[in-house]
């Protein structure tokens, strides 16, 4: 599973940087300042959790286990739901996509909780 988390980390990091650059250069004059800030929030959380996935991948090499894998799953789901819903909201203008965002936030919290529990159980 470590390979999967490291690959997802690289993908999330790459796309996070690309989307951030796209927003800064391509969307700067197309989105309202509020929507641009929302989009940038999505990229910020995506990049933070790309690093979290990297940590999960490294941890999975040394301390494999169910909690480590659950943390990776939760971080990946969080990126899709949280950041993805913010991207969709700003690009489409469909405000109801914002209802998905908190589920991504909860997934991030679950990921951090699982990571903490995994560390707690280490000997």
Summarize the structure.
By secondary structure, the protein is mainly alpha-helical. The chain is built from four helices and no strands.
Provide a descriptive summary of the structure in words.
With 123 residues, this protein is an all-alpha fold. The chain has one domain (2-121). 84% of the residues lie in helices and 0% in strands. The chain contains four helices and no strands. It is elongated, with a radius of gyration of 15 Å. Belongs to the UPF0382 family. This is DUF423 domain-containing protein. Its main location: membrane.
Number of strands: 0
Summed up, the domain count is 1
Q: Which series of helices and strands comes N to C?
A: HHHH
- Rg, rounded, reads 15 Å
Family: Belongs to the UPF0382 family.
Protein name: DUF423 domain-containing protein
Keywords: Membrane, Transmembrane, Transmembrane helix
Membrane topology: Multi-pass membrane protein
Write the layout of secondary structure elements.
Layout: H1 2-26, H2 33-62, H3 66-92, H4 101-121
Task: For the structure shown, list the relevant keywords.
123 residues; 4 helices; 84% helix; transmembrane; DUF423
